[in-house]
Specification:
The protein has 435 residues and is an alpha/beta fold. The protein has two domains: 267 residues, Metallo-dependent phosphatases (Purple Acid Phosphatase, chain A, domain 2, 4-Layer Sandwich); 159 residues, no CATH class. It has eleven helices and 17 strands. The strands form four sheets. It has a six-stranded mixed sheet with strand order 6-5-4-1-13-14. A six-stranded mixed sheet has the order 7-8-9-10-12-11, with no helix packed on it. It is globular.
Amino acid sequence: MGIRIAHISDTHLGSSPREGVRHNIWSVPNRIRLLENDFYARFREVFDRIASIDPPVDLVIHSGDLYDTPTDKNHSQPPVVAQETAITVLNDFISRTGIPVLVIDGNHGVYRNRDVSLLDLLRISVPGLRVATQVDMKRAIRENKPLKFSFEDFDVFCIPYMDRAVLESADFLAPFEEWISEHQQPEASRLSIAVAHGMDLDNSLYQEIFSNDYDYIALGHDHRMRKLAKNAWYAGSPERWRFDEANLKKGFLLVEVEHGSDPVVTEQLLEFKRPVFNEQLQLQPDDTPTTAAHRFRDWLVSHNLEDAWNDETAARVRLILVGTAPSVRTLELTIELESLRSEVLREDSGYNIAQLVWSYRFEGPEWDEQAHIPIDSEYLIEDPEADFRAYLETIPIDEKYDMDQLTRLAVRALRMAVSRTSERLTLDTLEEEEV
Protein backbone atom coordinates (compact mmCIF):
# COMPACT_ATOMS: atom_id res chain seq x y z
CA MET A 1 0.00 0.00 0.00
CA GLY A 2 1.40 3.38 -1.00
CA ILE A 3 1.35 6.79 0.68
CA ARG A 4 1.42 10.39 -0.48
CA ILE A 5 3.58 13.06 1.09
CA ALA A 6 4.15 16.76 0.50
CA HIS A 7 7.85 17.65 0.73
CA ILE A 8 8.83 21.26 1.46
CA SER A 9 12.07 22.82 2.65
CA ASP A 10 14.18 25.92 3.30
CA THR A 11 11.37 28.37 4.01
CA HIS A 12 13.77 30.75 5.85
CA LEU A 13 11.04 32.55 7.79
CA GLY A 14 12.33 35.87 9.05
CA SER A 15 14.67 36.50 6.13
CA SER A 16 14.63 40.23 5.44
CA PRO A 17 16.87 41.64 2.70
CA ARG A 18 18.35 44.94 3.89
CA GLU A 19 21.09 45.95 1.45
CA GLY A 20 19.96 48.49 -1.13
CA VAL A 21 16.34 48.31 0.03
CA ARG A 22 13.95 51.24 -0.38
CA HIS A 23 13.53 53.00 2.95
CA ASN A 24 10.45 52.57 5.09
CA ILE A 25 8.59 50.03 2.99
CA TRP A 26 6.37 47.84 5.11
CA SER A 27 3.81 45.13 4.61
CA VAL A 28 2.47 45.91 8.09
CA PRO A 29 3.73 49.31 9.32
CA ASN A 30 6.45 49.01 11.98
CA ARG A 31 5.90 45.26 12.18
CA ILE A 32 6.69 43.38 8.96
CA ARG A 33 8.99 44.70 6.25
CA LEU A 34 7.80 44.29 2.68
CA LEU A 35 10.40 41.81 1.45
CA GLU A 36 10.39 39.92 4.75
CA ASN A 37 6.67 39.34 4.23
CA ASP A 38 7.33 37.55 0.92
CA PHE A 39 8.66 34.59 2.91
CA TYR A 40 5.65 34.54 5.23
CA ALA A 41 3.22 34.78 2.32
CA ARG A 42 4.92 31.93 0.52
CA PHE A 43 4.79 29.76 3.66
CA ARG A 44 1.03 30.31 3.93
CA GLU A 45 0.54 29.71 0.22
CA VAL A 46 2.37 26.39 0.31
CA PHE A 47 0.27 25.06 3.19
CA ASP A 48 -2.94 26.31 1.58
CA ARG A 49 -1.96 24.50 -1.61
CA ILE A 50 -1.19 21.29 0.29
CA ALA A 51 -4.51 21.50 2.16
CA SER A 52 -6.37 21.61 -1.17
CA ILE A 53 -4.74 18.46 -2.60
CA ASP A 54 -7.27 15.71 -3.29
CA PRO A 55 -6.89 12.95 -2.29
CA PRO A 56 -5.07 14.41 0.73
CA VAL A 57 -1.48 13.63 1.57
CA ASP A 58 -0.61 11.38 4.51
CA LEU A 59 2.22 13.57 5.79
CA VAL A 60 3.96 16.91 5.22
CA ILE A 61 7.75 16.83 5.56
CA HIS A 62 9.83 19.98 6.03
CA SER A 63 13.48 19.09 5.51
CA GLY A 64 15.13 21.93 7.41
CA ASP A 65 15.79 25.69 7.60
CA LEU A 66 12.31 26.61 8.76
CA TYR A 67 13.74 29.89 10.08
CA ASP A 68 16.51 32.07 8.65
CA THR A 69 18.28 32.73 11.97
CA PRO A 70 20.11 31.95 14.15
CA THR A 71 23.14 30.75 12.20
CA ASP A 72 26.79 30.26 13.13
CA LYS A 73 27.43 33.88 12.01
CA ASN A 74 24.21 35.45 13.30
CA HIS A 75 23.06 34.32 16.74
CA SER A 76 19.92 36.46 16.86
CA GLN A 77 16.53 34.83 17.10
CA PRO A 78 14.17 35.07 14.14
CA PRO A 79 11.69 37.94 14.35
CA VAL A 80 8.71 37.40 16.61
CA VAL A 81 6.48 37.55 13.53
CA ALA A 82 8.40 34.64 11.97
CA GLN A 83 7.75 32.50 15.03
CA GLU A 84 4.12 33.62 15.20
CA THR A 85 3.68 32.75 11.52
CA ALA A 86 5.11 29.27 11.94
CA ILE A 87 2.91 28.52 14.96
CA THR A 88 -0.24 30.00 13.44
CA VAL A 89 0.07 28.42 9.99
CA LEU A 90 1.04 24.98 11.30
CA ASN A 91 -1.67 25.00 13.96
CA ASP A 92 -4.30 26.02 11.45
CA PHE A 93 -3.17 23.46 8.87
CA ILE A 94 -3.07 20.49 11.26
CA SER A 95 -6.35 21.34 13.02
CA ARG A 96 -8.09 21.94 9.68
CA THR A 97 -6.83 18.89 7.81
CA GLY A 98 -5.73 16.40 10.46
CA ILE A 99 -2.57 15.82 8.39
CA PRO A 100 0.60 15.45 10.51
CA VAL A 101 3.64 17.64 9.82
CA LEU A 102 7.28 16.73 10.51
CA VAL A 103 10.11 19.29 10.68
CA ILE A 104 13.85 18.74 11.17
CA ASP A 105 16.67 21.12 12.07
CA GLY A 106 18.73 22.56 9.23
CA ASN A 107 21.83 24.74 9.44
CA HIS A 108 19.67 27.87 9.80
CA GLY A 109 17.47 28.38 12.83
CA VAL A 110 19.86 26.49 15.10
CA TYR A 111 21.99 27.60 18.05
CA ARG A 112 25.07 25.70 16.93
CA ASN A 113 26.89 25.65 20.27
CA ARG A 114 23.90 25.09 22.54
CA ASP A 115 21.67 22.13 23.20
CA VAL A 116 18.52 24.05 22.35
CA SER A 117 16.44 24.43 19.20
CA LEU A 118 13.69 26.82 18.22
CA LEU A 119 11.79 23.76 17.03
CA ASP A 120 11.31 22.85 20.70
CA LEU A 121 8.93 25.82 21.02
CA LEU A 122 6.96 24.53 18.04
CA ARG A 123 6.88 21.05 19.56
CA ILE A 124 4.98 22.31 22.61
CA SER A 125 2.93 24.92 20.71
CA VAL A 126 1.53 22.87 17.83
CA PRO A 127 -0.33 19.62 18.62
CA GLY A 128 0.28 17.01 15.95
CA LEU A 129 3.66 18.41 14.93
CA ARG A 130 6.65 16.05 14.89
CA VAL A 131 10.04 17.63 15.41
CA ALA A 132 13.58 16.24 15.08
CA THR A 133 16.35 18.52 16.37
CA GLN A 134 20.11 18.20 16.57
CA VAL A 135 19.68 17.62 20.29
CA ASP A 136 17.27 14.76 19.59
CA MET A 137 19.84 13.24 17.25
CA LYS A 138 22.68 13.55 19.77
CA ARG A 139 20.50 11.82 22.36
CA ALA A 140 19.62 9.02 19.94
CA ILE A 141 23.30 8.47 19.12
CA ARG A 142 24.24 8.34 22.82
CA GLU A 143 21.50 5.81 23.51
CA ASN A 144 22.20 3.75 20.36
CA LYS A 145 18.64 4.28 19.15
CA PRO A 146 17.14 5.36 15.84
CA LEU A 147 15.69 8.83 15.41
CA LYS A 148 12.44 7.99 13.70
CA PHE A 149 8.71 8.51 13.74
CA SER A 150 6.48 5.52 13.09
CA PHE A 151 3.08 5.88 11.47
CA GLU A 152 0.56 3.16 10.69
CA ASP A 153 1.94 2.22 7.31
CA PHE A 154 5.47 3.70 7.25
CA ASP A 155 8.47 4.97 9.19
CA VAL A 156 10.31 8.27 8.81
CA PHE A 157 14.02 8.36 9.76
CA CYS A 158 15.43 11.79 10.58
CA ILE A 159 18.98 13.08 10.05
CA PRO A 160 19.05 16.79 10.99
CA TYR A 161 21.94 18.94 9.78
CA MET A 162 25.30 18.11 11.30
CA ASP A 163 28.46 20.04 10.46
CA ARG A 164 31.18 17.63 9.33
CA ALA A 165 33.90 19.91 10.71
CA VAL A 166 32.33 19.63 14.17
CA LEU A 167 32.28 15.85 13.93
CA GLU A 168 35.90 15.74 12.75
CA SER A 169 37.13 18.11 15.46
CA ALA A 170 35.44 15.89 18.07
CA ASP A 171 36.81 12.75 16.39
CA PHE A 172 33.21 11.57 16.07
CA LEU A 173 32.72 11.26 12.30
CA ALA A 174 33.06 7.47 12.20
CA PRO A 175 30.62 6.84 15.10
CA PHE A 176 28.13 9.23 13.49
CA GLU A 177 28.31 7.43 10.15
CA GLU A 178 28.02 4.08 11.94
CA TRP A 179 24.88 5.30 13.72
CA ILE A 180 23.29 6.13 10.36
CA SER A 181 24.24 2.74 8.92
CA GLU A 182 23.24 0.65 11.92
CA HIS A 183 20.46 2.45 13.77
CA GLN A 184 18.78 4.34 10.94
CA GLN A 185 18.40 1.13 8.93
CA PRO A 186 14.76 0.57 7.85
CA GLU A 187 12.87 -2.68 8.29
CA ALA A 188 12.73 -4.66 5.07
CA SER A 189 8.96 -5.16 5.35
CA ARG A 190 8.05 -1.52 6.10
CA LEU A 191 7.75 1.43 3.76
CA SER A 192 10.45 3.90 4.80
CA ILE A 193 11.30 7.55 4.25
CA ALA A 194 14.42 9.45 5.30
CA VAL A 195 14.58 13.21 5.77
CA ALA A 196 17.97 14.92 5.87
CA HIS A 197 19.50 18.38 5.55
CA GLY A 198 22.83 18.49 3.74
CA MET A 199 24.76 18.98 0.50
CA ASP A 200 27.88 17.61 -1.13
CA LEU A 201 29.13 21.19 -1.50
CA ASP A 202 29.91 21.54 2.21
CA ASN A 203 30.26 17.79 2.93
CA SER A 204 27.13 17.79 5.10
CA LEU A 205 25.33 15.10 3.08
CA TYR A 206 26.41 11.73 4.44
CA GLN A 207 26.59 8.96 1.86
CA GLU A 208 25.55 6.28 4.35
CA ILE A 209 22.01 7.61 3.92
CA PHE A 210 21.95 6.30 0.35
CA SER A 211 23.00 2.80 1.39
CA ASN A 212 19.98 2.26 3.63
CA ASP A 213 17.49 1.46 0.88
CA TYR A 214 14.84 4.01 1.86
CA ASP A 215 11.83 4.24 -0.43
CA TYR A 216 12.16 8.05 -0.53
CA ILE A 217 14.77 10.52 0.76
CA ALA A 218 13.50 14.06 1.38
CA LEU A 219 16.45 16.45 1.23
CA GLY A 220 16.96 20.07 2.25
CA HIS A 221 19.79 22.65 2.12
CA ASP A 222 20.06 23.02 -1.67
CA HIS A 223 17.60 25.69 -2.81
CA ARG A 224 17.33 24.14 -6.26
CA MET A 225 14.35 21.84 -6.77
CA ARG A 226 16.01 18.79 -8.26
CA LYS A 227 16.37 15.04 -8.34
CA LEU A 228 19.59 13.78 -6.78
CA ALA A 229 19.01 10.04 -7.13
CA LYS A 230 16.15 7.80 -8.21
CA ASN A 231 14.71 7.94 -4.70
CA ALA A 232 16.13 11.27 -3.47
CA TRP A 233 14.95 14.82 -4.19
CA TYR A 234 15.63 18.35 -3.01
CA ALA A 235 12.39 20.31 -2.65
CA GLY A 236 14.28 23.59 -3.01
CA SER A 237 13.08 26.78 -1.35
CA PRO A 238 9.64 28.28 -2.01
CA GLU A 239 10.93 31.87 -2.11
CA ARG A 240 13.94 33.52 -3.83
CA TRP A 241 16.39 33.72 -0.90
CA ARG A 242 19.41 34.87 -2.93
CA PHE A 243 19.57 36.76 -6.20
CA ASP A 244 21.11 33.78 -8.00
CA GLU A 245 17.82 31.94 -7.35
CA ALA A 246 15.91 34.36 -9.58
CA ASN A 247 15.33 31.85 -12.37
CA LEU A 248 15.01 28.68 -10.30
CA LYS A 249 11.81 26.69 -10.00
CA LYS A 250 10.13 27.32 -6.66
CA GLY A 251 7.45 25.41 -4.81
CA PHE A 252 7.13 21.99 -3.18
CA LEU A 253 6.99 18.33 -4.16
CA LEU A 254 4.04 15.93 -4.15
CA VAL A 255 5.48 12.43 -3.74
CA GLU A 256 3.73 9.09 -4.15
CA VAL A 257 5.71 6.39 -2.40
CA GLU A 258 5.21 2.65 -2.70
CA HIS A 259 7.40 0.12 -0.92
CA GLY A 260 9.97 -1.39 -3.26
CA SER A 261 9.22 0.98 -6.14
CA ASP A 262 10.70 4.25 -7.33
CA PRO A 263 8.76 7.24 -5.97
CA VAL A 264 6.58 9.27 -8.33
CA VAL A 265 7.43 12.94 -7.79
CA THR A 266 5.35 15.84 -9.12
CA GLU A 267 6.67 19.38 -8.90
CA GLN A 268 4.13 21.83 -7.50
CA LEU A 269 5.36 25.20 -8.75
CA LEU A 270 4.57 28.67 -7.47
CA GLU A 271 4.17 31.85 -9.48
CA PHE A 272 5.43 35.24 -8.33
CA LYS A 273 4.15 38.75 -8.82
CA ARG A 274 7.41 40.30 -7.62
CA PRO A 275 10.15 39.99 -10.27
CA VAL A 276 13.71 39.28 -9.17
CA PHE A 277 16.48 40.18 -11.61
CA ASN A 278 20.03 38.86 -11.41
CA GLU A 279 21.72 39.82 -14.65
CA GLN A 280 25.02 40.99 -16.07
CA LEU A 281 25.59 44.45 -17.46
CA GLN A 282 28.38 44.55 -20.03
CA LEU A 283 30.69 47.54 -19.86
CA GLN A 284 32.18 48.94 -23.05
CA PRO A 285 35.93 49.66 -23.47
CA ASP A 286 35.29 53.41 -23.78
CA ASP A 287 32.99 53.64 -20.76
CA THR A 288 33.61 56.13 -17.97
CA PRO A 289 31.98 55.90 -14.54
CA THR A 290 29.33 58.38 -15.73
CA THR A 291 28.49 56.51 -18.95
CA ALA A 292 28.48 53.20 -17.07
CA ALA A 293 25.93 54.62 -14.63
CA HIS A 294 23.86 55.83 -17.60
CA ARG A 295 24.02 52.31 -19.03
CA PHE A 296 22.80 51.03 -15.66
CA ARG A 297 19.84 53.43 -15.73
CA ASP A 298 19.02 52.48 -19.35
CA TRP A 299 18.86 48.84 -18.28
CA LEU A 300 16.28 49.68 -15.60
CA VAL A 301 14.16 51.60 -18.09
CA SER A 302 14.40 48.88 -20.76
CA HIS A 303 13.02 46.35 -18.27
CA ASN A 304 9.94 48.49 -17.62
CA LEU A 305 10.98 49.35 -14.07
CA GLU A 306 10.35 53.06 -14.58
CA ASP A 307 6.79 52.78 -13.38
CA ALA A 308 4.43 53.70 -10.55
CA TRP A 309 5.13 52.08 -7.19
CA ASN A 310 3.27 48.85 -6.47
CA ASP A 311 3.85 46.89 -3.24
CA GLU A 312 3.16 43.57 -4.94
CA THR A 313 5.24 44.03 -8.09
CA ALA A 314 8.12 46.26 -6.96
CA ALA A 315 11.23 44.48 -8.26
CA ARG A 316 14.38 43.26 -6.60
CA VAL A 317 17.36 43.97 -8.88
CA ARG A 318 21.00 42.97 -8.85
CA LEU A 319 23.25 43.84 -11.79
CA ILE A 320 26.72 42.34 -12.12
CA LEU A 321 28.97 44.72 -14.03
CA VAL A 322 31.40 42.82 -16.24
CA GLY A 323 33.87 43.61 -18.97
CA THR A 324 36.94 45.76 -19.51
CA ALA A 325 36.78 49.54 -19.25
CA PRO A 326 40.20 51.12 -18.55
CA SER A 327 38.68 54.46 -17.49
CA VAL A 328 36.32 52.90 -14.96
CA ARG A 329 37.61 52.78 -11.40
CA THR A 330 35.48 50.97 -8.86
CA LEU A 331 35.52 53.82 -6.33
CA GLU A 332 34.34 56.42 -8.85
CA LEU A 333 31.77 54.05 -10.32
CA THR A 334 30.44 53.19 -6.87
CA ILE A 335 29.90 56.90 -6.17
CA GLU A 336 27.94 57.26 -9.42
CA LEU A 337 25.84 54.18 -8.71
CA GLU A 338 25.15 55.21 -5.12
CA SER A 339 23.81 58.50 -6.44
CA LEU A 340 21.63 56.64 -8.95
CA ARG A 341 20.36 54.28 -6.27
CA SER A 342 19.42 57.17 -3.97
CA GLU A 343 17.36 58.62 -6.81
CA VAL A 344 15.72 55.32 -7.75
CA LEU A 345 14.80 54.29 -4.21
CA ARG A 346 13.47 57.59 -2.92
CA GLU A 347 9.75 57.98 -2.39
CA ASP A 348 7.88 59.06 -5.56
CA SER A 349 10.97 58.32 -7.65
CA GLY A 350 8.97 56.95 -10.55
CA TYR A 351 10.67 53.56 -10.30
CA ASN A 352 8.89 50.40 -9.20
CA ILE A 353 11.97 48.96 -7.46
CA ALA A 354 12.12 47.68 -3.89
CA GLN A 355 15.79 46.68 -3.84
CA LEU A 356 18.74 47.69 -6.01
CA VAL A 357 22.25 46.27 -5.61
CA TRP A 358 25.25 45.56 -7.80
CA SER A 359 28.61 43.81 -7.84
CA TYR A 360 31.73 43.98 -10.00
CA ARG A 361 33.39 41.22 -11.99
CA PHE A 362 35.77 43.14 -14.14
CA GLU A 363 38.10 41.40 -16.52
CA GLY A 364 41.81 42.07 -16.13
CA PRO A 365 43.49 43.97 -13.26
CA GLU A 366 41.11 45.24 -10.58
CA TRP A 367 43.61 47.43 -8.72
CA ASP A 368 42.34 50.96 -8.34
CA GLU A 369 45.35 53.17 -7.71
CA GLN A 370 43.21 56.23 -7.00
CA ALA A 371 41.29 54.46 -4.26
CA HIS A 372 44.25 53.31 -2.16
CA ILE A 373 47.13 54.85 -0.27
CA PRO A 374 50.40 54.18 -2.13
CA ILE A 375 52.58 51.51 -0.55
CA ASP A 376 55.99 50.09 -1.34
CA SER A 377 55.91 47.97 -4.46
CA GLU A 378 57.49 45.00 -2.70
CA TYR A 379 54.14 44.45 -0.96
CA LEU A 380 52.05 44.43 -4.15
CA ILE A 381 50.70 41.07 -5.33
CA GLU A 382 51.03 40.77 -9.08
CA ASP A 383 49.75 37.18 -9.35
CA PRO A 384 47.64 36.35 -6.25
CA GLU A 385 47.03 32.73 -7.21
CA ALA A 386 50.68 31.89 -7.87
CA ASP A 387 51.90 33.81 -4.82
CA PHE A 388 49.42 32.19 -2.47
CA ARG A 389 50.21 28.71 -3.79
CA ALA A 390 53.90 29.41 -3.24
CA TYR A 391 53.12 30.53 0.31
CA LEU A 392 51.16 27.33 1.02
CA GLU A 393 54.16 25.27 -0.01
CA THR A 394 56.20 26.88 2.79
CA ILE A 395 53.87 25.84 5.61
CA PRO A 396 52.52 22.46 6.80
CA ILE A 397 48.97 21.86 5.53
CA ASP A 398 46.75 19.03 6.73
CA GLU A 399 45.95 16.60 3.89
CA LYS A 400 42.22 16.95 4.51
CA TYR A 401 42.31 20.51 3.11
CA ASP A 402 41.90 21.06 -0.63
CA MET A 403 44.78 23.25 -1.88
CA ASP A 404 42.77 24.45 -4.88
CA GLN A 405 39.85 25.48 -2.69
CA LEU A 406 42.13 27.28 -0.21
CA THR A 407 43.72 29.18 -3.08
CA ARG A 408 40.34 30.08 -4.55
CA LEU A 409 39.16 31.37 -1.17
CA ALA A 410 42.27 33.53 -0.73
CA VAL A 411 42.18 35.00 -4.23
CA ARG A 412 38.46 35.76 -3.97
CA ALA A 413 39.01 37.47 -0.61
CA LEU A 414 41.81 39.62 -2.03
CA ARG A 415 39.78 40.65 -5.06
CA MET A 416 36.75 41.52 -2.95
CA ALA A 417 38.95 43.60 -0.63
CA VAL A 418 40.56 45.50 -3.52
CA SER A 419 37.37 46.14 -5.48
CA ARG A 420 35.39 46.92 -2.31
CA THR A 421 32.30 45.12 -3.51
CA SER A 422 29.19 44.79 -1.38
CA GLU A 423 29.47 40.99 -1.42
CA ARG A 424 30.49 38.90 1.57
CA LEU A 425 32.77 35.91 1.46
CA THR A 426 30.44 33.11 2.56
CA LEU A 427 29.51 29.61 1.48
CA ASP A 428 26.57 31.15 -0.36
CA THR A 429 28.71 33.56 -2.42
CA LEU A 430 31.19 30.80 -3.25
CA GLU A 431 28.38 28.48 -4.31
CA GLU A 432 26.91 31.28 -6.39
CA GLU A 433 29.96 31.27 -8.65
CA GLU A 434 29.28 27.63 -9.52
CA VAL A 435 25.55 27.92 -10.20
